[in-house]
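Incident log, structure service

09:12 report received: a user says their structure output differs between two submissions of the same chain.
09:20 pulled the input from the user's history:
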Amino acid sequence: MNKQGTLLIVDDNRNILTTVRLLTEPVFEHIATIANPAGIPGHLRELRPDVVLLDMNFGKATDEEAFAPFGTEERAPRFSTNNGNEGLYWLRQIRQMAPQTRVVLFTAYADIDLAVRGIKEGATDFVVKPFENERMLEALTAARDKGKSRQALHKGEEKSGMFWGSSNAMNSLRKMVEKVAATDANILITGENGTGKEVLAKEIHRLSARAGAQMLPVDMGAISETLFESELFGHVKGAFTDAKADRPGKFELASGGTLFLDEIGNLSYSLQAKLLTALQRRHIVRVGGSTEIPVDVRLICATNRDLQQMVGEGTFREDLLYRINTIHLHLPPLRQRAQDIVPLADMFIRRYADMYGKEGLRLKPEAAQKLSTLPWYGNIRELQHAMEKAVIMSEAGFIGPEDIDAGHTHREKPMEEVQTLDEMEQRMIEKTIKECEGNLSVVAVRLGISRQTLDNKIKRYGLCGAHPAGTAGAGQCRLCEAVAPTQARQEQPAPALRCRGECRLHAAIYRKRQAQQLRQPLAQPHQGGAAAGARRTDGARKVL
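09:34 re-ran on a clean worker, output below:
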């Protein structure tokens, strides 16, 4: 029998610890035993066990030890009687700290109902004391194998992590990928951040004849100019101060497989020529060396920038663009494939529900409707993070609309969607006001315009309730995204219009008015005489 997995046994009876250890040694590769449940967190972090055999009750003699402080900020609760609450407490702790770890409960005949409750709270199985050896081995190995099968399932998903969906754009893209993946043609993948460009590159590599070799990703934006040649082409010993030994570069390491150059648009113009030379000659020379080393790589590049526009601006070499752009694949943003949003969300929910021990979690229709209406400017990456948070915050086996973070609805419009100079100017003013926390004088200085010009532009673009009363958009505040009450719109002049969200601009206006009102009564003489009143007025002015 092959020994696999790690087992952690937790029981305050040391005889049971010894017995179970001897019984399971032929089955588990690593076994740890503890009599003090307070040691569970540390063992989870260090051993990462596949299975925990957890006793449901701990003797009074070990209470002080068992529930000693753990961690740095919290303390395990004390239990006055052995009613099984100890076991349930530590079951919850294990499920929270190590969701992938399977828990088998160890309990007496009288506590079977308690064990069933533990099953409902996430335990995999339970064994009754006094136990039968076959039953014990069966429960522990089944729990281990169940965890392994789930891990294998996740690995299988990772092999083909591409979600195609049912949109027309993705169907067309899939057909093109199936045609070009089997070739060695260089491919350029474009798309916004978070659309899954690297995932698509992995899928192309998986479908290619080079699938048996590795795909090596390189973030071109993270490589400095001084280390570019060393990272991509390698170096020989003594080429520079820190070159202690010969080192192959990314081209050599990826030879026979695929080289994925991410964020190719961030590469400086001077380094583009060196990359082009390597691609044309199909050989490289290490830094400090003289020997030409042939390389055989399939090149896939990705960027979120418009390389054709960069060529026109003179910041990207046209000959390099032709070299890497044999096949151009564009990943559409998620908001342009709305029918794929809910299926994607369901996939992430299943993944994280399994991770966090919330199997069977479902999406309410209202939540699905909300997902479909959000813009998702962060695309699939943003949706994935939102679903992970929703799974964590969910209750009662459902994800409702309140569990979905809608913070992204307030995000700015992507720059590539800006069409006019007025839109660009409006965005710049709005962004600068936010950065300067509503201090318009500072905003004017940063933008290089006068304060009066800034006020005029704020009114022009309606950034902060500057629309005249009775007109379309009256009371709307673009900065805090609120609408002033109707009465306020009618009674207050437009420049002083106060929105319901009390944005920093309006708050500054009202603070100034309040200070002015406070000065007026202070300027009048009091019973202490005119001189005393004047002195008080001067002091008040200094404070204000």
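09:41 both user submissions now match this output. Likely a transient worker issue. Closing.
09:42 reviewer note: The radius of gyration is 33 Å. The first strand starts at residue 6 and ends at 10.
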